Prior knowledge:
2 domains
Amino acid sequence: MKIVVFGLSITSSWGNGHATTYRALLAALQKRGHQIVFFEKNEEWYASNRDMPCPEFCQVRLFDHWRSALPAIRQEIEDCDVAIVGSYFPEGIRVTDELANSKVPIKVFYDIDTPITLSKLRAGGAEYLQPRQVRHFDLYLSFTGGPILNQIKQEFHAPRALPFYCSFEPQKYRPRGVYRRYQCDLSYMGTYAADRQPKLDELFIAPALNAPNRRFLLAGPQYPSKIKWPRNVRRIKHLSPRWHPHFYSSSRLTLNVTRQAMAEWGFSPSVRLFEAAACACPIISDTWPGLDSILKTGEEVLVAESSSEIIFILRDTDDLQLQRIGQLARERVLVEHSSSRRAEEFEQHVSSVSAGKSRLPSQILLAASTSAAFPGGSAQPIS
């Protein structure tokens, strides 16, 4: 298949979780023989912090303005089999209208921020998607599973709303040796979010204050200068994905904290959850509906709701028990949440839609084994 993607960013992972998600999925799809073009708006924030300017698995089309990009967009979707619009794509409303009036066989919305999107749709529309547009997508794929998908279908008439969780690349995310630079008792990786900070205060900052002899490590940008960090917390402003496996492999435990809207709806595993598990790093997570469907609590993931519970785990759980929890989590995500598994699911979803449509081009029947791999590896600016 030829797949055209419109996403927030694939060239820069700075301050967003979209890039690593796209990288894992699209690399796996390219390995399965699909041709991929990725449109990304050339935002200054990402342009000055690019850690993958030229992905080998897709052709990146950077653009500055919608008008200048439109001829290239029309050219690429003219012969594509699937077009994907991701949440927070800056020109999402315009490109969705363009797709609605096109002959693209399969149109997909990939929502990495479903609870936020739903809230905005209910309020009249998001800056990247309007309520009237949801029905135009053949597939509404969501980072969040569970009951929220019924709301998307009932309130906004999505024909098919399905869970489509993030994933990780097994060849990159695997146990490594302990790096002294990242060695700690408890780590946390995540960009600052106001609605997540109260939990971080309770589950990370408070335990650090009350366990001054323990080492804490936080990696992530955009934290306000007014936050007072305990002396035993070391911070890394931004950590390149290249070093994420070393970060997790050097952590005795790592913390997973879910944004408020995601926690309320549940069924919202973060990419960090899967990446840490893939590295066999024992995870302490906040609790939310559906967590046990992703990792078994008490066996594959530990749960804490207070600083005292964090301190208890740090103090009273022996290393052999932690290693066992980390290994079981790794085995689980390798089977269910690898990028290759997610690529297979994507093909199955597209094939299901194709089977329900008539007079589709024969090349969309997912004959990946006979498709030629796409010679990507370039980021082409659109003038």
